[in-house]
């Protein structure tokens, strides 16, 4: 009898003990859920976006290899499955060389129409019009800022990409240095830019970095002072935050027709 009472006493928990036990179970459950969310965000979204982006690159390269030409509209790289809009301003002056003639207008958001290549960081990613998360960036694409120049054009070709998650095409953008090359391939031509400067950190509101003559209004010693044919790459920094922006500026060096 005494033994059964002892066992029963040990089996009964006080309200405080039951509350602590419940809190412990809740903490374990929440920890498991957070771990699953972390895996989804850092691994699964990357896997999906990278596969989708590389599929689009393969489609574009296959189409260009077959000699497909942009005949469905004014946008560079446009085809029947990429209707056009007239949202981009045309370049003010003709870019250097016959092959550097840019498109008159961009394709619609969400359809890759160019391929960005950065040998230094092993990047090969599709470029789509717009910088919306759902339509462009979260699909692993590099987004083209509306109303900036198209590849090869006079002015500033401004591009944005995720640094973490959703394909993270600009994960290693901080490794670029002056003298590195950046290529943009389209249906009409191959454009090669050379990196001129890197702005490691600036405010998200420093919109002058994507101006036609790109410069920093926060850090006046960075940027260009003369009109030209430029390329600007932007992403968030530090990693896993959106506190600041990392900016890479390049200048058009050559253009060759397909």
Number of domains: 1
Strand order of the largest sheet: 1-2-3-4-7-8-6-5
**Helix-strand makeup class:** alpha+beta
Name of the CATH first level: Mainly Beta
Distance between the termini: 94 Å
CATH architecture: Beta Barrel
Helix content: 10-25%
* CATH fold type: Sortase, Chain: A
Provide the gyration radius in Å: 25 Å
What is the chain-wise order of helices and strands?
HHEEEEEEEE
What does this structure look like?
The protein is α+β, with helices and mostly antiparallel strands and 258 residues long. It has a single domain, classed as Sortase, Chain: A. It has 2 helices and 8 strands; from the N terminus they run ααββββββββ. The protein has an 8-stranded mixed beta barrel with strand order 1-2-3-4-7-8-6-5. A hairpin with a 4-residue loop joins β1 (112-118) and β2. The longest helix is centred in the N-terminal third of the chain and has 51 residues, at 15-65. Mean pLDDT is 81; it is low at 70-100.
């Amino acid at each position: 009898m005494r033994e059964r009472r002892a066992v029963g006493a040990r089996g009964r928990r006080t309200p405080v003990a039951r509350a602590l036990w419940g809190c412990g179970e809740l903490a374990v459950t929440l920890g498991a859920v957070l771990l699953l969310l972390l895996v989804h965000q850092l691994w699964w979204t990357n896997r999906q976006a990278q596969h989708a982006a590389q599929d689009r690159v393969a489609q574009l390269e296959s189409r260009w290899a077959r000699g497909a030409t942009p005949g469905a509209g004014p946008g560079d790289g446009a085809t029947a499955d990429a209707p056009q809009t007239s949202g981009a301003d045309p370049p003010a002056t003709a870019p250097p060389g016959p092959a550097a003639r840019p498109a008159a207008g961009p394709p619609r958001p969400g359809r890759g129409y160019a391929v960005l290549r950065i040998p230094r960081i092993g990047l090969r990613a599709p470029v789509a019009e717009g910088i919306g998360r759902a339509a462009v960036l979260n699909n692993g694409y590099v987004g083209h800022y509306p109303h900036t120049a198209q590849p090869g054009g006079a002015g500033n070709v401004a591009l944005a990409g995720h640094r973490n998650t959703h394909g993270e095409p600009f994960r290693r953008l901080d490794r670029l240095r002056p003298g590195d090359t950046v290529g943009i391939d389209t249906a009409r031509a191959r454009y090669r830019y050379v990196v001129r400067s890197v702005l490691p950190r600036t405010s998200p509101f420093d919109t002058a970095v994507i101006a036609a003559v790109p410069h920093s209004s926060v850090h006046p010693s960075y940027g260009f002072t003369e009109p030209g044919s430029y390329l600007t790459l932007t992403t968030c920094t530090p990693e896993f935050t959106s506190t600041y922006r990392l900016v890479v500026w390049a200048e058009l060096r050559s253009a060759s027709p397909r």
